[in-house]
Structures are given as structure tokens and as C-alpha cells.
Design a protein that fits this description.
With 111 residues, the protein is of the alpha+beta class. It contains 2 helices and 6 strands, in the order αββββββα. It has a 6-stranded antiparallel β-sheet, covered by helices on one side. A hairpin with a 2-residue loop joins β4 and β5. The radius of gyration is 13 Å and the shape is globular. The two termini are 24 Å apart. Belongs to the frataxin family. InterPro entries: CyaY (IPR047584), Frataxin/CyaY (IPR002908), Frataxin/CyaY_sf (IPR036524), Frataxin_CS (IPR020895). Involved in iron-sulfur (Fe-S) cluster assembly. May act as a regulator of Fe-S biogenesis. Keywords: Iron, Metal-binding.
């Protein structure tokens, strides 16, 4: 994948995460806050825990930092897949957000 293709796909993923936060806040009482600075989104929960999603252009990856650890994702067959487990970014983001918020939260690539 070329660098411009990576940036287009990665920016689309970040936009979907931002839209997912808005959708979750509209549909639930989760009251999550998301702040974007450049290629990084910080999602903060009422309990002050955070998820951080950031782009890593030199590696063509997206990284996720959560209480449970750090995850690295690369594009594989049109999806962002964990470089170790193959788990999809939005599935893992949903699981981590649910764990940190204490309620079921769902993110998806088409938010």
C-alpha cells in the first residue's frame, strides 16, 4: 500500500471512531469524551480511564493503547488487523471500551 493510500484508510478509521463516539453518546448514557489532535484520538470515560488511538505512518499502522495493553494494527484484506492476533481493530476497540466504561459499547468501521 502506498503512503497516500495508508493515510486515506487510516483517516477513515479515525473518522469512524469519532463518529462512533458521537453515536454512543447519543444512544447511551456512557458520556465518553473524545479529543482529536492530529493523528491521535483520546477517548476518556467518566471514571477517567482512557483509550488512545494513534496513527503510525512510518509503519503504516494504527496503534491502540488500553488498560489491558497496547495493540498494533495493519491493513489486511481491507480491515485493520492486530499484528499478533489478527483481531480486527473495531472489535477490539469495542471490547476495550466496554471493559473500561462498564457497559456494552459498540464501534464499527462504518460508523
Amino acid at each position: 500500500m502506498t503512503d497516500p493510500e495508508y493515510l486515506d484508510r487510516a483517516e477513515a478509521a479515525l473518522a469512524a471512531i469519532e463518529q462512533g463516539c458521537d453515536r454512543i453518546n447519543d444512544a447511551t448514557d456512557a458520556d465518553i469524551d473524545n479529543q482529536r489532535v492530529g493523528g491521535m484520538i483520546t477517548i476518556t470515560f467518566p471514571n477517567k480511564s482512557q483509550l488512545i488511538v494513534n496513527l503510525q505512518p512510518p509503519l503504516q499502522e494504527i496503534w491502540l493503547a488500553a488498560r489491558s495493553g497496547g495493540y498494533h494494527y495493519r491493513q489486511v484484506d481491507g480491515a485493520w488487523r492486530d499484528t499478533k492476533t489478527g483481531e480486527e481493530l473495531f472489535a477490539n476497540l469495542s471490547r476495550e471500551a466496554s471493559a473500561q466504561s462498564g457497559q456494552s459499547l459498540q464501534f464499527d468501521a462504518a460508523s
